[in-house]
């Protein structure tokens, strides 16, 4: 049922935006941003359930929670960066969108540095 | 050995399933490649990690991650605090400059025969040096005249000498010279007095104090 809701919101927003675009093109962007945030919020609630499930799943299998925490942070950053980049692309500012993507990538790499160094440490310790 | 293999395989399978789940919910953009790479690293760690236990070596990933991220955070903090320090020092030197200018102007107004004073200073703004805040140059513009408090006591207007404009140019010049001489002496006196006062109160070399009397 929720997917119906989301698709309906999307279609209404598209219709609204195409009507507004003819009259006031500067308002069309705002409609698309608000729709994006609305859908994002509706999905985020569902996503939190999936994340809870993954956490309990990893605890049962005795997996280090550090892996999951870093992965979750990375996915969150990726979602936010992609959302911002898409909004910029919709507004026709693809150069700003690419900068946002770059910022997202840099943040993710900074988060991933401990993982990479750990892997290197692990390999070095394994050497005889 | 069998127990070890069992836990190892369960670990790898669970991590693989979790990574696949993450891959499904990942946004389909350019960042996906980076996330896949990191997911691969995590899987690699999960595969290699149990072998360390066989070699009787302890490896705590959590601790490693915390120490590494601490190092990154520390560097980030240092960089941002340096930026903040630069900004703060600029503001501090600005406030200091304003205070010094105000006090120089106050000192200048205390000197006899000065009615208005406007000061401008140059200071050493390199906060890493020992001489940070040292005043390197003072420009002081003063206006001669009686102070406001004195001006109230004006009793009578000084009589103006008769000016004869029909006199030839050379004669006029001669006259001017005789009139200007005492005025220059007075401004010299004021300049010297101002220099002495500023030199004493702010410990600035007399050569670096430039006084203009109007």
Describe this structure in words.
The complex is a heterodimer of chains A (128) and B (214). Chain A is mostly helical and 128 residues long. Helices cover 91% and strands 0% of the residues of chain A. Chain A is built from four helices and no strands. In chain A, helix 2 (25-60) runs antiparallel to helix 3 (65-90) and helix 3 packs antiparallel against helix 4. Chain A is elongated. The termini of chain A are far apart. In chain A, 21% of the residues are buried. The model of chain A has no long low-confidence stretch (mean pLDDT 86). Chain B starts with a helix and ends with a strand. In chain B, helix 1 runs antiparallel to helix 2 (31-54). Residues 172-181 of chain B have low confidence and may be disordered. Chain B contains five helices and three strands, in the order H-H-H-E-E-H-H-E. The relative contact order of chain B is 0.08. With 214 residues, chain B is mainly alpha-helical. Chain B has a three-stranded mixed beta sheet with strand order 1-2-3, with helices on one face.
Fill in the keyword field for this structure.
heterodimer, A: 128 residues, mainly alpha, elongated, B: 214 residues
In short:
The complex is a heterodimer of chains A (128) and B (214). Chain A is mainly alpha-helical.
Multimerization status: heterodimer
Q: Summarize the main sheet of chain A.
A: none
- Class based on secondary structure composition and strand pairing of chain A: mainly alpha
Number of strands of chain B: 3
The helix count of chain B comes to 5
* Secondary structure category of chain B: mainly alpha
Largest sheet of chain B: 3 strands, mixed
Amino- and carboxy-terminal Cα gap of chain B: 99 Å
Task: Note the topology.
The complex is a heterodimer of chains A (about 130) and B (about 210).
Chain A: H1 2-23, H2 25-60, H3 65-90, H4 94-126
Chain B: H1 2-25, H2 31-54, H3 61-110, E1 114-123, E2 135-144, H4 148-151, H5 169-202, E3 209-213
Parallel strand pairs in B: 2-3
Antiparallel strand pairs in B: 1-2
